[in-house]
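Obj: model holo form, ligand = iron/sulfur cluster.
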Amino acid sequence: MAKAQLMQGNQACAVGALAAGVTFFAGYPITPSTEVAEILAEMLPKFGGKFIQMEDEIASMGAVCGAALTGAKAITATSGPGFSLKQELIGYASMAEIPCVIVNVQRLGPSTGKPTSPAQGDVMQARWGSHGDRGVIALSPTSVRETFDITVKAFNFAEKFRTPVILLLDEVVGHMRETVVLPESGDVEVIDRKRPAGPPEDYQAFKPEADGVAPMADFGEGYYYHVTGLVHDYKGMPSQNNALTTELIDRLHTKIERARDEITIYHQDYTDDAEVLVIAYGGTTRAAIAAVKEARAKGVKAGLLTLVTIWPFPGEVVAKAAAKAKTVIVPELNYGQLVGEIERYVPREKVVSLTRYDGELFRPEEILNPIITAGGGK
Amino acid sequence: MAGIEKYLRKSALPHIWCPGCGNGILLAAILRAIDKLGLDQKKTVIVSGIGCSSRASGYMNFNTVHTAHGRALTFATGIKLAKPELNVIVLTGDGDSTAIGGNHFIHAARRNVDLTTVIFNNNIYGMTGGQYSPLTPMNAKATTAPFGHIERSFDIAALAIAAGATYVARGTAFHAQLLTDLVVKGIENKGFSVIDAITQCPISYGRKNKMGTAADMLAWQRDSAVMVQAVSKMKPEDLEGKFVIGELYRSVAPEYTAEYDKLIARVAKKGGK
Ligand SMILES: Cc1ncc(C[n+]2csc(CCOP(=O)(O)OP(=O)(O)O)c2C)c(N)n1
Ligand code: SF4
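Output (holo structure tokens):
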């Protein structure tokens, strides 16, 4: 029987990665993400996996890409400044369709900001941080147990869609300790990338199958192919062809868009009859649910939609949940990042943005008060 | 080309290099080294950065990665650590490896990862049209040094040795056969090997510095190179304006991926994978 254990969010991330089959970590220390590296430094060699502390975040991202090409399930963990440094190679991993997981335990910025303070300031960096245009998967768990599950999902999505997946933790979730019961290893669904079945001579590493994803051969198996960040043809060779360029960039989006339902993870609490809907994500959800419950106790029909999948943005889910509500309240630990996206699906006059960027968490009453005001209470 | 044709991706040819560029000679020398050693093609990976020289990987029929500018060694480190049985050869430019990639270069050397890095050293940024690189000599001209370059240049070999590389050599496009031998020894070395391969860029460097045709630049390599064996018999003034070629340094040090495997053997749980 699985037993209850006290665990931190960052630890759950490391353990989740192991459950998903991680075999490679490369990273560079930065608060508040370092526990992920420290735990994997200890655990990976015990299972024959590899850990390396590189000279910086760029190097870490390069090593992760390289390892993933040999067939490894690879991960790196960082925070805002390091995430910025990785952006060029995150874009490379998208373009070259290299599966990997990038954990960003967000801290307050810009710049070195407040290293130990919680924030959710990298929502847009996760989407648009790298140059150019591509489909992005970014997931933001709300609890320690969910961090375990979502880390496994992150690997599964990375492998299935041959893409980098971003795990957006925040300092609250990363450093929070909770008692959790983790599933037995056999109960965890683990997905591995498709490998080619045909003869190596016929292999085209970037020729999509019906799901938009090509099988990926491990380096060293005799399936020779070229990997480049340049626009490339099905064999990976650089190309200037315009039609091919459009097709490739389209596919970097559509392979993810098409799987939107599968990728979209969210929770709803008291939303069925909610007149005031709170939409929250990450660590902010905890104050939000306390506020919603308190509002209900005071007779206001409040509800909470928790977005775990941040990108691709679950617009339909938001639109549906918000349709009956008079007011939609969006608390975020930033100057207002996801709220702009929500306003694309909910009439602006219904939306109330709550922001906090001083390095402290929302207290439940900061969310409760606007709920009561919107709900016509006192 | 006989013998090395099987290592070329014929569909990727013709190459993009300018007529007279030395990159093709270096590519052939490297393929000859691979052939001479009889490396298993399946188990050989070529990693390059960004620049004219780094396009070489695309012409080679192996698992090849054309990474981002300056980052070849980071990818190569990940590949080698994740799968140490692979032979990993890194092809990079002088700007790629010592400017934007300088930090990775010294750390790969310090770790002594079993990689063989061939630096296509044309003293200039070729692909972006002739801006100065950390290997542009003082007083030479570049598009971003129109009045002559006022920075000192790196000595790649000295840099590599100081950082911990265990095999360091220098060759040239003119001495192509020697270059093949140096690459062979670099690949044979269990550790971080650096081959500074001097090559000509008649278009972006030669033209600006009035070095004549590609043939003149090759003659310049011939006349300026001194075999390492000859140095001890020469007076310091004879070495003025010359550079030394051949095997410059060799040492033995723990190799990173082998050390990691030992670590695994030490800590691996019984029955663990
Ligand atoms: C991050 C980044 N900065 C700049 C560039 C532009 N760039 C492409 S190639 C190159 C210089 C290459 O010079 P070198 O490495 O000496 O190789 P060569 O072209 O001379 O063979 C530069 C600066 C880039 N691609 N990426
Ligand atoms: S610019 Fe120089 S280095 Fe680049 S291909 Fe032309 S000759 Fe070669």
